[in-house]
Every structure is written in structure tokens, then in C-alpha cells.
Amino acid sequence: GPRIGVLALQGAYREHRQRLEALGAQVTEVRLPGDLAGLRGLILPGGESTTMARLMTEYRLWGPVRDFHAAGGHLWGTCAGAILLAREVQGAPPQFGHQDSLALLDVTVQRNAFGRQIDSFTTEVRVSGLDAPLPAVFIRAPAFARTGEGVERLCSYEGQTVAVRQGTILATAFHPELTGDLRLHELFVNELREPVAS
Ligand code: GLN
């Protein structure tokens, strides 16, 4: 299968790794820019986006991940990973002011969009492209409050957009890697089997 990277700075990267390996993909844990060499896709996992952003700066990964995307590498951000992809981030803790992001996905993402009282919940969502509902775990999940013209909305839950696609970028507010349902990972892996357009 294709070689896929999982950004392994913090958060739920081991679960993504297991799901990808179950589907026959070769997995590289990405911590340094050089780890991106030879990858067809990269998953940015859930966790804590402010912590991940700080580590992205520390390991000098912002530029290399943007270059990876520009060179045709596919990206999928889940939860905090989706926040890292967004052009604009709302709801960063006040002490951070502006929150750094890759700004590759033309959305405004609202952090913790489902309230703090209900920290996490599991539900089923309908995702376009999947024939049956997908179990989805939301943990202090964000939502895509604004989506740009080139952004396709794949899924909404309680009136909020929770999955989007823009070209080679996929972003989900929830965690598909915390369930046994592999269909979204399968979709991502299958895209990478196709030859890169040049
Ligand atoms: N609320 C977290 C953040 O803003 C994301 C939570 C998650 O990835 N499960 O980083």
C-alpha cells in the first residue's frame, strides 16, 4: 500500500497508525521535516491544537508541511489537526491571542464549538460518500463556522459543519480513529493509491 505519515508530536496518533496499518498502508511517524520524504499523505491527529502548534514551530514543520501539500501530498486533519489546517481559528485561549495554523484549508474553524458542559460524546453522522451512518466521537470538538467557495461540506451535525473537503485536503471535527469503523480511513488510503496528477 501507499506510504502515509501521521504527525506524531502529540495526541491520538497511535490510533491513526493502527487504523492505517489495518488497511495495509505503510506508516511513518512524522516528527521532523525529513520524515515527510516519500509520503503520499499525512494525517494530523486530534489532541491539543495550541500544544501541537507550539511543537510545529519548535520542530520547524510549518513550511515543510505547506511544501508537502503544494507538491501534491494529501492531508487529513482530525479535530485539533483540522484546526491546524484552517485559514482562520476562533476561540484560542486569550493568552495565545492569534493561533498559528497552516492556513491551507479555506475555513474559519471555531474551537470547542459544542460547549464545555458536554465535553465529549459519541453519535452517528451521515458523511457524503459513505452509504451508511458513521460512528463519530466528538471530544471538545471544533466546527467549521465559515467554509470558502472551494470547500465542499461533507457532513453536518446539529446545524454545524463537521467534515469538509478542499481538493487534496480532508478535515473532520470528530475522531474516526477512536471507533472500529475504518471507512473514512479507507477512503483516504484509496485516494492515495491513485497516481499523483502532475
Ligand atoms: N479542543 C481541542 C483543541 O482546540 C481539540 C480537541 C481534540 O482534538 N479532540 O485543540
From TrEMBL:
Any Pfam family: SNO
UniProt: L-glutamine binding residues: 47-49, 111, 139-140
Active site (catalytic residues): 79, 175, 177
Listed InterPro entries: Class_I_gatase-like, PdxT/SNO, PdxT/SNO_CS
Molecular function via GO: glutaminase activity; pyridoxal 5'-phosphate synthase (glutamine hydrolysing) activity
Keyword Cell membrane: no
Entry EC number(s): 4.3.3.6, 3.5.1.2
Listed pathway(s): Cofactor biosynthesis; pyridoxal 5'-phosphate biosynthesis
Reactions accelerated catalytically: L-glutamine + H2O = L-glutamate + NH4(+); aldehydo-D-ribose 5-phosphate + D-glyceraldehyde 3-phosphate + L-glutamine = pyridoxal 5'-phosphate + L-glutamate + phosphate + 3 H2O + H(+)
One GO CC annotation: glutaminase complex
Entries under Gene3D superfamilies matching the protein: 3.40.50.880
Keywords: Glutamine amidotransferase, Hydrolase, Lyase, Pyridoxal phosphate
Residue ranges of coiled coil: none
Functional note: Catalyzes the hydrolysis of glutamine to glutamate and ammonia as part of the biosynthesis of pyridoxal 5'-phosphate. The resulting ammonia molecule is channeled to the active site of PdxS.
Recorded family membership: Belongs to the glutaminase PdxT/SNO family.
PANTHER family according to UniProt: PYRIDOXAL 5'-PHOSPHATE SYNTHASE SUBUNIT SNO, PYRIDOXAL 5'-PHOSPHATE SYNTHASE SUBUNIT SNO1-RELATED
Protein name: Pyridoxal 5'-phosphate synthase subunit PdxT
Organism whose genome encodes this protein: Deinococcus arboris
